From TrEMBL:
The keyword Transferase applies. This is Alanine-glyoxylate aminotransferase. Keywords: Aminotransferase, Pyridoxal phosphate, Transferase. Substrate binds at R352. The modification N6-(pyridoxal phosphate)lysine is found at K204. GO terms for biological process: glycine biosynthetic process, by transamination of glyoxylate. It holds the Pfam family Aminotran_5. It comes from Agitococcus lubricus. Its cofactor is pyridoxal 5'-phosphate. InterPro entries: Aminotrans_V_dom (IPR000192), PyrdxlP-dep_Trfase (IPR015424), PyrdxlP-dep_Trfase_major (IPR015421), PyrdxlP-dep_Trfase_small (IPR015422), SP_NH2Trfase/AEP_transaminase (IPR024169). GO terms for molecular function: alanine-glyoxylate transaminase activity; L-serine-pyruvate transaminase activity. Residues 50-344 form the Aminotransferase class V domain. Belongs to the class-V pyridoxal-phosphate-dependent aminotransferase family.
Length: 377
């Protein structure tokens, strides 16, 4: 007898939700339709043409002329890891800013690469303190890399990426910037900032399916990686090997590209370009303002100071006396709305309401406020 699973033999159907958490965000019909196009070979001339457009659209999203700009076949965590395994050698000092969960993951990455993490801690919910980072550079002027999270999804805080990149340049260090939650929601200006490596995620303000990590590297990084005497400890994430597939001239097999997900990302980026980056940033801001006004009426307080608050991720204190899980469950079961719980030290204390990408729409703000009001009263 063969083993057989005990499931009802119907196709899986998903419930209809409004995704107003920390990601994934809602996906538009046009992007879902792109996903359903016939799969073709990843070396098919038609697919290769689409890849070139995809790279150009990503350069627009990142505002960069960097030749090496492409989507990593893996989630944001793969993009993060690709930066560290290629840019950190054994014994390298790396200044890592930690003001939430994802800064801590960067520390983990440095240590797993055999580097020495110089940690600059800030209170969760606050932006990275430039003075502290400058102090770290003064103490460790031989630091090779500065790594920080532009938009800390665990807290809703936005840090000053332009100033942090300028600081790293003054001390001759490369930068690794986490823009998983920022890309498409607030300005990410790779060339203007002089950033060296920026990675993002497909599932937040780009509103594509999860599982891809747009990434861009400066020519300085490419030169460093190409001159590296030892091989990267990761085969899959080795930039030198990936250059053969995503590079300028060659298209040789490295791994089987997730073709349909790439169609979807192409469509999502096309939608972003058609809307215009500045319009997309303005939309995120105005929907945030509308939500903020409604939350004030409900007497709900924000975690992050107004000056460093992310418009696409509203982290708010849970009003006293309310049960975190009960409220989130009621929002989901009764109203079909997903909002996010707090992470780490903020678990049970905050909720995270995302208005990211295609989720950042007035109708979602209205639905969320109405549901919150009915659940809280
Ligand atoms: N960095 C930040 C700031 C994130 O918000 C996330 C995911 O939420 C990640 C990295 C990891 O991305 P993924 O979950 O796609 O691996």
């Amino acid at each position: 007898m063969l083993l057989a699973p005990e499931i009802t033999p119907n196709a899986y159907t998903t419930p209809l939700r409004r995704l107003l958490g920390p990601g994934p965000s809602d996906i538009s019909t046009r992007v879902l339709q792109a996903l359903a196009k016939p799969t073709i070979g990843y070396l098919d001339p038609s697919f290769v043409g689409m890849m070139e457009e995809l790279k150009a659209l990503l350069r627009y999203a990142f505002q960069t002329k960097n030749a090496l700009t492409f989507p990593v076949s893996g989630p944001g965590s793969a993009g993060m890891e690709m930066c560290f395994v290629n840019m950190v050698d054994r014994g390298d000092k790396v200044i890592v800013c930690r003001n939430g969960v994802f800064g801590n993951r960067m520390v983990e990455n440095v240590e797993r690469c055999g580097g020495q993490a110089i940690i600059v801690d800030d209170v969760w919910g606050q932006a990275v303190d430039l003075n502290k980072v400058e102090e770290a550079f003064k103490q460790y002027p031989d630091a090779k890399v500065l790594a920080f999270v532009h938009a800390e999804t665990s807290t809703g805080a936005l840090s000053d990426a332009r100033a942090l990149c300028a600081l790293a340049q003054r001390y001759g260090a490369l930068t690794i910037v986490d823009a998983v939650t920022s890309l498409g929601g607030v300005p990410v200006l790779a060339d203007e900032w002089g950033a060296d490596a920026i990675y993002s995620g497909s599932q937040k303000c780009l509103s594509c399916t999860p599982g891809l990590s747009p990434i861009t590297f400066s020519d300085r990084v490419v030169a460093k990686v190409q001159a590296r005497p030892q091989k990267s400890q990761s085969w899959f994430l080795d930039l030198n090997l990936l250059l053969g597939y995503w590079g300028e001239t060659t298209r040789t097999y490295h791994h089987t590209a997730p073709t349909n997900s790439l169609y979807a990302l192409h469509e999502a980026l096309l939608a972003l370009q058609q809307e215009g980056l500045e319009q997309a940033w303005a939309r995120h801001k105005s929907n945030h303002e509308a939500l903020k006004a409604g939350l004030a009426v409900l007497d709900i307080r924000y975690v992050v100071e107004e000056t460093s608050r992310l418009p696409q991720l509203n982290s708010i204190y849970i009003p006293q006396g309310l049960d975190d899980k009960l409220v989130r469950t009621a929002m989901l079961q009764e109203h079909g709305i997903e909002i996010g719980a707090g992470l780490g030290a903020l678990a049970g204390k905050i909720w995270r309401i995302g208005l990211m990408g295609y989720s950042s729409r007035v109708e979602n703000v209205v639905a969320c406020l109405a549901a919150l009001e009915s659940v809280l009263i």
